[in-house]
Amino acid sequence: MRRGLALLAALVLLVSCGTWGALAEENVQMGRTEPLYSQAKAGYTLPVYGKEAVRFETDLTLTVGDSAQVDFTAPEDGQYEIWLTYQNTTQSTLPTELIVRVDGELPFYELRRVKLNSLWVVETDEIPVDRYGNEIAPTPVSAQMEQTAGMTDSTARIDAPFLFELKAGSHTLTLDCQDSGTHLSAVTLKGPDILPAYAGEKAQGSAMIVIEGEDIYSRSKSSIRGAGEFNAVLTPYSIDHRVLNHLDGASFDTAGDTVTYAFKAEKAGWYNLDFHYRQGVKADFPVFFDLLIDGAMPSEAARQIHMDYSTAFTDMTVMYGSAPQTFYLSEGDHTLSLRINAALLTPVYEMIDRVLSEINTLSLEITRLSGGKADQYRSYNVREYIPDIEDRLNGWSRDCAAAVDYIKQFSSNGSGSAFSSLTLCADQLRRLAEKPEDLPRRLSELSTGSNSASRMLAQQLQDMANNDVAIDQIIFYQEGAQLPSRAGFMESAGKSVERFVTSFSSQDYAAGTGENGHLQVWMGRSRQYVELVQNLIDMQFTPQTGIHVDISLMPDANKLVLANAAGTAPDVVLSLQYVVPSYLNIRGALYDLTQFPDFGEVAQRFSSGLFIPYTLGDGVYAMPETVNFWVMFYRKDILDALSIQVPDSMEEVKLILPELQRRNMNFYFPTAGMSGMKVFPGTLPLILQSGGSIYADTVSDTTLDSDESLKGFREMTELFTVYNMPADVPSPGFYQQFRDGTLPIGIADLGTYNLLLNAAPELDSLWDIALFPGLEQEDGSVARWTTGGAETMAIMSQTEMPDEAWAFLKWWSSDEVQAEFGSLLQSTYGSEYIWPTANTNAFATLPLKSVHKKVIMDQMEWMTEAPWVLGTYMLERELSNAFISVVVDGVDARRALDTAVKRINRETYRKLEEFGYYKDGEMLKDFPTPTVDIVQKYIDDWNAAHPAGEEGQK
After folding, report:
1. 324 three-class SS
2. Whole-prediction pTM value?
């Protein structure tokens, strides 16, 4: 009944205003050539198929890039669901993604991305425990079994399989594999399942079944996991150690997420159902979920059950009207599945998508009218050029207000506070409609500002996508059963005090607390990473080698020199910021890795250019652990709408700038996002691509003023002084303006990539990446050199266990361990935990989109680093100052670099004198500039001594 009223309300909402009513008539989303499913379905005329399912056997294996066809026959004219029987063939945390065509056509847009999820299970009943006695969520693996699922929306905005309108006769289903891989064994045509009406009876008896929220049988996403809190109302609970005691809401938060529990009913009968849960992310608004018993919904009443807002754990009995909803369980084993359902919000999602697109369109029209820079002293007759501007703005305002009214019916108190962004947006659009002639001067309020209507709508999409349901216990109970008691206020307060006192004696992963005789390793990352690494060591490295290792949280990387002097330094450091080794090796704090005979073999795991900052003389004192890649991001929808080809070089970038700039758009170069000092990742690429450098053979004099370096410096500064790229893009930076569409293309790094993947739902499938658009060379090739340093690993010089430390670094940096850790990190904590390993072979196995991974790995071949030596910090600073002098103050590039070079050389000689290389105006000994040739020599020597085919060759 509730579902029927909701659908009726949604229908009333859709037709209540003109723009929503027009949704089914045309697709206004930029870049889409197919209608949305809701639009296509509105035009169906054939009856829904209601007879026996028809199964077509097949035997197809698909990997990335493969395409296959399945021929099938529709028995009669009608609307059909298409179900696939499949088994994914990889252990990747990414689902298999397909583009699906029927008879060579895409009947609706959502078929561009159909997901086949794996089923993730834990193979052991034992809960792993770390060395401090804390429980760790077990790592799931992909179940090797066939699954059958109907093709449905990848974003789970639709809570049922798609319906396809088919004429009787032969048809062809074409499947293009975009990611992962699968084996397809059958295609089935069937009609929608008809759920029985609710017919529950009273739950008489005294039986009770308690299911712990963290005791997960299977899950649709590997990162759905149990977690532990020191909260006395949860069970189990321990004062001394962290125990898993609830389903982690941060992992069970996305529409379509499904978690399954296995349990046994000792007594057949009808049962009530209670949840002890917390849902604190949607203020005064419920999260909806479907309830399945033994893989099927028992009745229509089990669809879209709501969990109301609660910031603390609370009990809720599933209701049907004013009475508890009951479920029949036969004696024996059963499963209970919970699936987050966001279908009631689909009209709101589609409205926001549409209005965002239409606002961007209007913003372009206003920009063309004003020329991109509105004059505050000029009057704009906006109505003459855009006669319907007031209707558009008021229509969008009404749409937002109607959406808020629609969702209020689902709130327990009639509040719409979870959708306050929509309310604010409606008010702002209405105010803009009152004075449309001011819109050119108030464009920041419409689409470009941090508090614009567009930004509010995008934020609302992000808020809607987050559900965050944590579950402590699920209880089937009959009316005579006594439900478990919960800790009250006084008991909780008492245990909190006990926990507070106990925490002072807890030294988990603290530096300096390791055991004597164990290898001491400091890691510059959070506890989540440290726990996983320690667990891997205890399960693999120590049993294999007999070497015991204690991982600790690095207190402060800047204190490593002091710790080394005091004799309290660790043996090994991990995740050290990539420039720090240059400060440590000159002070003798790091061990020369070239002293190990197989260094040349291990070094081949990484891009050779990344070793440059770690090189001193003929020694190499650290190895890269992770990288920070720089690639070009672009909005596919906007570039397609403007008929702009993706540029491959800086010359091609310059050619597209007029087309972008006349629409108040632009290209983003990374120096624009660097507030204050412009660091090497922004200032060096074009210098390197021009054949320039920052030092000659020795570091005594910089070569920033060489012809090649000057050419690259001018290439960079002219992007801003001649070609009018934005010189300053303040926080929130490129990410937000990329979302807005004002910077639809630009160069950015891993951080932006992660944000767009996980925090920009409105851009799903509307953006892509490409190689850095470098400088074209005389032979026609394009140089794409960029920096790429992130974190590094090293051995401290005072270690008494150098061989054990080297064995550890070889194990940690190996292809297998880096690949396993990258997959483990994402499978445990989610897709946002990307591990950008510097090991190139391991990077190829990371659970990233295949098309993106290929681009990144191609760019990694152009990855290098600056030589970090005595005084390089001053060189980076003065190069930044020279850039600012040219771009901001209009100083000539040659003059700016000449000034910089004088300051750089003065500081360099001061540091050379400090470390004994220079005195009284004379060089006592040369300080050779680190180059890639040094590490390459060790690699070549190893390969020469170990020809291909011999044992030990990589």
Report:
1. strand
2. 0.86
Q: Are the beta carbons of 71 and 157 closer than 8 angstroms?
A: no
Task: Quote the pLDDT of residue 15.
Answer: 37
Q: CA-to-CA distance for 5 and 2, rounded, in angstroms?
A: 5
What is the number of alpha carbons within 13 Å of residue 756 lying toward its C-beta? 28
Q: How many residues does the chain have?
A: 954
Percent of all residues in the chain with a pLDDT value above 70, rounded to a whole number = 94
903-925 residue pLDDT tens: 999 999 999 999 999 998 888 99
> Cis peptide before 732, with omega less than 30 degrees from 0?
yes
Both tokens of residue 14?
A: 């859709």
Question: 590 pairs with which residues across the strands?
Answer: 796
Question: Three-state SS for 835?
Answer: coil
Task: Report how far apart the first and last C-alpha atoms of the chain are (Å, whole number).
Answer: 66
Percentages (nearest 5) of helix, strand, coil residues in the chain: 35, 25, 40
d(C-alpha 317, C-alpha 28), whole Å = 43
Residues 6+ positions from 652 with CB-CB distance below 8 Å = 645, 773
Residue 352's contacts (CB-CB under 8 Å, 6 or more residues apart) are: 403, 457, 460, 461, 762
Instruction: Work out the number of other CB atoms within 10 angstroms of the CB of residue 613.
Output: 26
* Contact between 29 and 357 (Cβ < 8 Å): yes
Pairing verdict, β 630-635 and 623-624: unpaired
Residue 782 and residue 649 in contact, taking contact as beta carbons nearer than 8 Å: yes
Confidence (pLDDT) at 27: 40
* pLDDT score at 28: 35
Place of tokens 């990371």: 846
Question: Residue 705 region, left (φ>0) first, then alpha (ψ -120 to 50), else beta?
Answer: alpha
**What are 535's two structure tokens?**
């667990």
3-state secondary structure of 340: strand
Nearest to 36, CA basis, from 109, 114, 102, 111: 109
User: Do the beta carbons of residue 547 and residue 577 sit within 8 Å?
Assistant: no
φ, ψ of residue 939 in degrees (nearest 5) = -65, -45
Number of neighbouring beta carbons within 10 Å of residue 427: 14
Q: What one-letter code names the amino acid at 413? A: N
* Location of structure tokens 């938060």: 253
Q: Give the mean pLDDT of the chain.
A: 90
Instruction: Tell me the per-residue pLDDT of 335-352, one tens digit each, with 9 for 90 and over.
Output: 999 999 999 999 999 899
Residues 6+ apart with CB under 8 A from 614: 581, 582, 585, 620, 621, 622, 623, 624, 792, 794
Residue 227 CB partners (closer than 8 Å, separation 6+)? 137, 214, 244, 245, 246, 247, 248, 250, 251, 470
Could you report the per-residue pLDDT of 676-733, keeping only the tens digit for each?
Answer: 899 999 999 999 999 999 999 999 889 999 999 999 999 999 999 999 999 998 767 8
What would the pLDDT profile of 424-467 be if each residue is shown by its tens digit? Answer: 999 999 999 998 888 888 888 988 777 889 889 988 988 888 89
pLDDT per residue over 625-673, tens digit each? 999 999 999 999 889 888 999 999 999 999 999 999 887 789 999 999 9
Q: What is the pLDDT of residues 313-328, one digit of tens each?
A: 999 999 999 999 999 9
For residues 138-147, give the mean pLDDT.
Answer: 90
Whole-number Å distance between alpha carbons of 813 and 811:
6
Sign of the C-alpha dihedral, residues 349, 350, 353, 359?
negative
Burial class, 759, CB count within 10 angstroms (exposed 0-12 / middle 13-18 / buried 19+): middle
**How far apart are the C-alpha atoms of 208 and 189, rounded to whole Å?**
40
Dihedral angle, C-alpha 617, 622, 626, 627, nearest 10 ° = -10
Neighbours of 388 (CB within 10 A): 10
